[in-house]
Amino acid sequence: MKFELEEYHRNIKDDDLIADLKRVALELNKAAVTRNEQDDRGKFNSATYINRFGSWFGALEKAGLEKTRTPMNLPEEELFQNLEEIWIKLGRQPRYAEIQKPFSKYSVGTYEHRFGTWLKALERFVAYMNNEVNVSSEETLKDRAIEPSTKHKTSRTINWRLRFVVMRHDNFKCKNCGRSPATDPKIILHVDHIKAWSKGGETVLENLQTLCSKCNIGKSDLE
Ligand SMILES: [Zn+2]
Predict the structure, then answer these.
(1) Could you give phi then psi for residue 106, rounded to 5 degrees?
(2) How many other CB atoms sit within 10 Å of the CB of residue 198?
(3) Which pLDDT score is estimated for 49?
């Protein structure tokens, strides 16, 4: 497919875009067309459709073509959790092209479909995670009652949101040795209580740190 500027097709009618998309589907004898297929065979490239209809899935919808078979009722939290896992594995913000199965549980199309664009999905994710910062800081402990059975104000478990917040705070690097999956994909990061929970440490941002699996094993013997 030829390289072309979006401006060139600014005056193309929606109907012509849709007609060409349908033609490609017919040629391929498929119920849906991928962006690559449109770019290879279409008169107009997929970026033109995304600009016009908001997303590739918006274009497919307009053309009455089948979308990805993602259940509509997939909870937002599930999509965020998957994003969190990928972000931690990479040790940095994931890129559009990296959101692919099986590395990601859901395709980037699922995120686009749900949030409009990949960027919007990232923005919603960040807002969701930032909320955790307020919930799990030392400041909020003041008003919390001590649970008699554990003698703690917090539970020992570090939830997935808090885990992410701590790692981001530590720039996805081990606080002990400085290694990160961003520079060495073999590195696996964990979040660890600075003052052990068994010794009265609470599960709050201020008492948590990022350690790699090697440094964490060395430390857990002391707990
Ligand atoms: Zn380490």
Answers:
(1) -125, 145
(2) 10
(3) 87
